[in-house]
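SUBJECT: A protein chain and its fold
Encoding: whole-number codes for local backbone shapes
RECORD BEGINS BELOW THIS LINE
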Amino acid sequence: QVYVVFSEELKCWCRALVESVWRQADGFQLRCFLVDYAKYCSVPSESIRVLAGVFAKIPHRAKKCRLHCTKPLTLHIDYCENTAKIGPAKRWDTAAIQHFRKLLE
């Protein structure tokens, strides 16, 4: 279900999908995917609203996707052997994500 959350970074209300919820000392925090900005953000539970009527039917501008047959790689360094090899990784590292975003721009 799509909700509306207030993004402090963007300073506006945005449509979002709730990814996860966790409890903090002062209430609940939500991790959300902003469907019109393709960004993730964390918001307090007080900053979420139900999306009303026809606004819920507007298509999302951003979609989650994956690159077909592209697997993350990372540099594995062995200090004992004094070698470095590129090999598979479980997640994309920060440098690879930043490089890909620069290529898109």
